[in-house]
Amino acid sequence: MRIGELAQRAGTSTRTLRYYEHQGLLHAGRAANGYRVYDDAELRVVREIRALLAVGFALDDIRPFVDCLRAGNESGDVCPDSVAVLRRKLAEVDAAIDEMTAVRDQLRTQLNDAINDRETPCCAMTC
Amino acid sequence: MRIGELAQRAGTSTRTLRYYEHQGLLHAGRAANGYRVYDDAELRVVREIRALLAVGFALDDIRPFVDCLRAGNESGDVCPDSVAVLRRKLAEVDAAIDEMTAVRDQLRTQLNDAINDRETPCCAMTC
DNA sequence: GCTTGCCTTGACGTCGGCGGCAAGGTTTAG
DNA sequence: CTAAACCTTGCCGCCGACGTCAAGGCAAGC
């Protein structure tokens, strides 16, 4: 499998795959003419990367998952390093949700106050 | 008031103030020697900007609030454009919270599955 | 041979809110 | 006179996951 086919099957671009390789996440052999050659296992790797990216992981955080897959596990999640990253990310997301919730409450207050403050002088002048 | 003093009173840097001016948010007069000169009202403007940035607004979104303050209002929130931005931002934050919550739930599931899957073969082999 | 479509490396652009440095001019205190 | 502490403009760096050329080499069909 060459890079174009892998990109298509993974639903991404060739540029992205070269980038992953540059980051050390994706492995490629080389044909005689210099073309990258991938075996089928790399498709799973790319899908793992894409799935974790979609959830909000950085490429650095994804490395343990890829290593875990390469070690022969069915899932990239089962290795200790992966679990550690999962835990850390979960804590981060929890914290982020708390922050966003506080922001949301403040925005609501601010919006209500703005509307009230606006109606008061408006009505005092027009009514 | 010159830029250093304004920066100090607003709790930020001179670099930041020049940036805000470059973005058209902050207004400065000029002394004979070319130094920027600010009147006291600009301090409120800077604080408004900082407060909104802290809540997650982009500088572009903050412009209406600053204009509103400059129009003589006590709060930058009361003008229609500001209210519109507040509403939009509130919707964005709500959506972001929903997304993050979904991510959190997936992470929890993934983490649980990982731990269960790991214990099974581990125990099968060692126990 | 010629076109078309694949592939290669390399390097710059993106977005936002600044930080930091260079290379000066100004003012004030000692 | 000089050091120190202000100020000026201008430009590069940063982070992250790529997009987007540029300039070329290889393969396959007509």
UniProtKB/TrEMBL annotation, chains A, B:
<keyword id="KW-0238">DNA-binding</keyword>
<dbReference type="InterPro" id="IPR047057">
    <property type="entry name" value="MerR_fam"/>
</dbReference>
<keyword id="KW-0175">Coiled coil</keyword>
<feature type="domain" description="HTH merR-type">
    <location>
        <begin position="1"/>
        <end position="68"/>
    </location>
</feature>
<feature type="coiled-coil region">
    <location>
        <begin position="90"/>
        <end position="117"/>
    </location>
</feature>
<dbReference type="InterPro" id="IPR000551">
    <property type="entry name" value="MerR-type_HTH_dom"/>
</dbReference>
<dbReference type="Pfam" id="PF13411">
    <property type="entry name" value="MerR_1"/>
</dbReference>
<keyword id="KW-0805">Transcription regulation</keyword>
<keyword id="KW-0804">Transcription</keyword>
<dbReference type="InterPro" id="IPR009061">
    <property type="entry name" value="DNA-bd_dom_put_sf"/>
</dbReference>
<protein>
    <submittedName>
        <fullName>MerR family transcriptional regulator</fullName>
    </submittedName>
</protein>
